[in-house]
Amino acid sequence: MQPIGLFGGTFDPIHYGHLRTAFELWQELRLAEVRFLPAGSPPHRDQPLANAELRLRMVKAAVADQRAFVVDDREMRRTGVSYSVDTLTELRAEYPDRSLCLLLGMDAFLGLPHWHRWRDLLGLAHIVVAHRPGWKAPTMGPLGEVMVDHGTGTVRELHEQTAGRIYVHAVTQLEISSTELRQLIVSGRDPRYLVPDEVRHILRESQCYAHG
Ligand code: ATP
Question: Under CATH, what is the fold of the domain 4-175?
Fold first, then answer.
């Protein structure tokens, strides 16, 4: 069976950088689906500006026309801080024999050693890292070491094993970030062509970033 891709994020708001990355990884890794997991209360950063309901609405609107993209709101339904290790433990129990691939941008991967029980993640899933502009794969430190022990250059291993490999994949570089998008909207500019039109309509109607 093909692996399931898991794409977590704050999605405050979702943008074409997220969508294109998910699409290329879905195609090139031959994933059964990419599951978007919007974070409820993210542990590593300031709280999102847009509320959970609105971020979820934007993610759903953004992926509505792509059958292989699925939205999973479990982290939003859970109270308290969203830890990836808890989400992966739940998913592993639901899919005991299935390959699970946690999809991360390189910036997120470099922050991994700060995640709660980060070393346990590889016991639960593979980690697929998408190159993001301006970021390089680590060669030293704790991540450099796990790259040596767990790194793989073949997609086949992601299919044959259910967890435990790290695979780095180059995707089309779209220099878009939610932070810059919010700043652009606060300053009264139009996010057109950086986000899907459906997301742009929700942003307009809700005015969720209008006041910074
Ligand atoms: P912020 O600017 O608020 O930190 P962000 O744009 O980085 O937001 P997140 O929701 O924090 O978006 O990111 C979710 C995931 O998407 C992370 O793994 C991140 O590395 C990845 N990601 C975000 N933007 C891009 C992009 N332009 N290209 C590739 N991956 C991206």
Answer: Rossmann fold (3.40.50)
Q: Which two tokens stand for residue 10?
A: 């704050």
Q: Contact, 2 vs 31, CB < 8 A? A: yes
Element at 4 (helix H, strand E):
strand 4-9
Q: How much is the pLDDT for 81?
A: 82
Q: Where are the domains of the chain?
A: 4-175
Q: Residue 131 — pLDDT band, cuts 50, 70, 90?
A: confident
Burial class of residue 77 in the structure, from the number of CB atoms within 10 Å of its CB (0-12 exposed, 13-18 middle, 19+ buried):
exposed
**Could you tell me the strand order of the sheet in which 100-105 lies?**
69-71, 33-38, 4-9, 100-105, 126-130, 166-169
Q: Which atom of ligand 1 is nearest to the CA of 11?
A: 10
Q: In the 8-state DSSP scheme, what is residue 205?
A: H
* Residue 42, helix vs strand vs coil: coil
Tell me which of 36, 55, 129, 132 to substitute to probe ligand 1's pocket, judged by most ligand atoms within 8 Å of the beta carbon: 132
Q: Is 179 in the pocket of ligand 1 (CB under 6 A)?
A: yes
Q: What is the mean pLDDT of residues 170-186?
A: 93
Positions of E strands within 53-195: 69-71, 100-105, 126-130, 166-169
